[in-house]
Specification:
The chain is of the alpha+beta class. Helices cover about 35% and strands about 35% of the residues. It contains two helices and eight strands, in the order H-E-E-E-E-E-E-E-E-H. Helix 1 packs antiparallel against helix 2 (about 140-185).
Length: about 190
């Protein structure tokens, strides 16, 4: 019984990575030169929250290829049914050329994207090819793994309880068997 449960858990552990896939990004980085800027835009698929997507914009000086650290970067998303969404991208001192933005209202469909960069080299507006939002998939395999692992834990606890109960009964039986003999031996 227990070996069957462990075999099932091992089988699910091997198959689960092939069944459950994270939100994948099919988009490729889009690079263009606009004004004095070289702008690259791509989706960052590392964010797995449902309804959210992270975008990265790299802003470089087109002639020197050096980062433009203090630019204002706004990404605008236009959907044919939903309202327009805008996200302000920000950078860090560690990576001044990368501006990251998190979009919260990201539906699984095609979005028209534009990026507005305002900085020391001027103001430009770039239109990025349409991006398809990830289709949110349910993950029944993840739930199945949770149920199986919980079942294994409960069965292991039950098994340990049964073993301890059996040991306790044997101990009581041994004490009951030894008890009258010891009394008889002490009377002699």
């Amino acid at each position: 019984m227990i070996s069957a449960v462990f075999t099932l858990a091992m089988l699910l552990g091997v198959l689960a990575p092939h069944i459950v896939l994270a939100q994948e990004s099919g988009s490729q980085p889009f690079t263009t030169t606009a004004g004095a800027y070289e702008i690259t835009v791509w989706e960052d698929p590392s964010n797995l929250a449902a309804g959210q997507m992270s975008f990265v914009v790299r802003v470089l000086n087109a002639t020197t290829r050096e980062p433009v650290p203090h630019a204002s970067v706004v990404i605008r998303f236009d959907h044919k049914v939903l309202s327009k969404v805008a996200a302000t991208a920000s950078n860090t001192p560690d990576s001044p050329e990368y501006y990251k933005a998190l979009v919260n209202e990201y539906a699984p469909d095609f979005w028209d994207i534009s990026v507005e960069v305002t900085g020391s080299l001027g103001k430009v507006l770039v239109y990025v090819p349409s991006v398809e939002g990830p289709v949110l998939r349910s993950a029944p395999a993840g739930s199945l793994v949770f149920v199986v692992v919980s079942l294994v834990i409960v069965l292991a606890a039950w098994y340990m309880w049964r073993i301890m109960r059996g040991i306790e009964r044997r101990r009581e039986t041994n004490q009951a068997d030894e008890g009258p003999d010891e009394e008889a031996a002490s009377e002699d």
